[in-house]
Amino acid sequence: MKKYCLDTSGLSTPLEFMPEDIHETMWAKVAGLVASGAFAVTVEIYEELKHLSGSIGGCIKENDDALQMEIEEEDWDWKTYIGHYEDMKVRHAAVISEYNGNRKGTIGLNDLTIIALAKTLGLPVISSEKKMNVDQDSGKRQKIPDICDKEGVTHISFNDLLRAEGIKN
Question: pTM for this structure?
Fold first, then answer.
C-alpha cells in the first residue's frame, strides 16, 4: 500500500550525509519500505532514483514496478494526476525552472510531477528541500515544500519518515 510520494532528494541527500556503510540497519529498513511498495514515484522521478548507488540504488532498480505510477495503468486515477500536473504548470509557471532560464531557487518540472502525484493520491511528499523565504523575494523563488503548501499537500523530511515508521539506527 502506498504511504508516501518520494522525491529523489528524499533519499539522495540522506545517503550523502548518512552513508549506507555507517547506517546499515537504517538503510536496510528503508529498503524494506521500497520493496513493500510504500513509496510512489512518477516515471520522471524513477529515472532520477535509479542512478542512486549502493544497495538502495539496487533495491530501487529491483522494485521499479512497486515504485512507479505509470500513465494509463488502470489501478490508479492517472487522469486526475494529469489534470493536476497541467493545472500546476500554469499556476506555478513563474517559479518553474525550465520556464525561467533555469533560475536558482525554482522548482523543476520533475518536482512538479511528484507534487501532482501526491495531490492525486492524497499522500505526503518526502524531500530534503527546505521552504524558501518567500517574503524576501516576492515569491520568485520556491521549492517543493512551498508548492506543496500552495497545493494542500503535506511535505515531510527524511527524518520525519524515519520517525513515522519507527526506524532507528
Answer: 0.93
